[in-house]
Design brief:
The chain is an all-beta fold. 0% of the residues lie in helices and 60% in strands.
């Protein structure tokens, strides 16, 4: 492990992501409870540039305060019209969904676009097209909306479906599989083709004993993690409706919060990078021949803290990790492998 940066921020870190077109820029979503009203969250988005020639190795180039706590955010993964066009960015907060564009050249500029206020907390979001997003919320609903990414045209809530009776912590849409997944704080898990979201008879539903907090996919494999410290792998069959068959599982000694699945640099295997509650960042190998999952390494520098933020990219045959810890406000970026 080679540290790139590590720093305490003024607020609790909840989410972190590398910029899609720059290896030297990341954004961090954070929040804290209001000092005057204990049930109100105040949020902040930080844009950070890695700058090896300054003390600490980075600079906070932008800082934006939101009325609600930032619970998740995502840069759009879709190509922009030109290499120098601003990148769309969406924030899921405790008071609504915000959209922006971020310009990184020749200067850093964050431009607010349309906001959609909500009565329920927006918990997790994902871009599913250049102008469409899904997000899960505190009322147990999955929401599908369209945005023209302007300052004038309101977002269009195309569909809203209540799946759960508690917080829907996580949602994930796989373009590769054409399946939407959603996991709830009470352990209920749904898999359904997006076009069939309103047809409950076409959902594959499983009730886990604990809350579901992490979902990731690659090819026909689905990983599911939750409060019981266990990462479970399933094989998807997609006709006539999504059905998951258990493959293997591994106890990670900490609740599973975020998971990334990447190709391995050696052998017929995949690498899993997993952030956990209080047990650090785990590196796993999934052998595609034996269907076995094993722990190969772990980053435990911040053991005991909640690793809620995680993003991973491949750089020069190494993994470049951005991690964020909720209860000590730390961001830690490092190379692994």
């Amino acid at each position: 492990m080679e540290t790139i940066i590590e720093e305490d921020l003024p607020m609790q870190v909840d989410c972190i992501q590398w910029h899609p077109t720059s290896d030297e820029i990341m954004a961090v979503g954070a929040y804290q409870l209001s000092p005057t009203t204990t049930d109100t969250r105040i949020g902040r988005l930080y844009v950070i540039q890695l700058t090896p020639n300054v003390p600490g190795g980075f600079s906070v180039v932008l800082e934006y305060e939101t009325p609600g706590g930032v619970l998740d955010f995502k840069f759009s993964p879709y190509p922009t019209p030109t290499p120098h066009s601003p990148t769309p960015l969406a924030l899921a907060t405790s008071t609504g969904l915000y959209t922006f564009t971020l310009q990184i050249t020749p200067t850093f500029t964050l431009t607010p676009l349309i906001t959609m206020e909500t009565t329920a907390m927006c918990l997790y979001l994902q871009w599913i097209s250049p102008v469409s997003l899904i997000f899960s919320d505190g009322d147990g609903c999955i929401n599908l909306l369209d945005t023209e990414l302007t300052t004038e045209t309101p977002m269009h809530l195309r569909k809203r479906k209540k799946l759960h009776e508690a917080l829907t912590w996580i949602c994930h849409y796989s373009n590769e599989q054409d399946v939407l997944y959603a996991g709830c704080d009470d352990g209920k898990f749904n898999a359904v083709k997006l076009e069939n979201l309103s047809k409950e008879e076409l959902h594959w539903v499983k009730k886990f004993e604990v809350g579901v907090t992490s979902i990731a996919t690659r090819e026909d494999i689905v990983s599911i993690g939750g409060y019981d410290d266990t990462l479970r792998l399933y094989k998807l069959s997609n006709t006539p409706k999504p059905t998951l068959t258990p493959l293997t599982s591994l106890n990670l000694q900490g609740a599973v919060w975020r998971t990334f699945i990447l190709p391995s640099f050696h052998g017929n295997a995949w690498t899993f990078v997993v952030s956990t509650a209080r047990k650090g960042i785990k590196f796993l190998e999934y052998d595609l021949d034996s269907k076995s999952l094993s722990l190969i390494s772990e980053e435990m520098k911040y053991e005991g803290f909640l690793a809620y933020g995680l993003d991973v990219r491949i750089e020069d045959k190494r993994l470049k990790i951005a991690s964020g810890y909720f209860d000590n406000n730390v961001i830690h970026a490092f190379y692994w492998g």
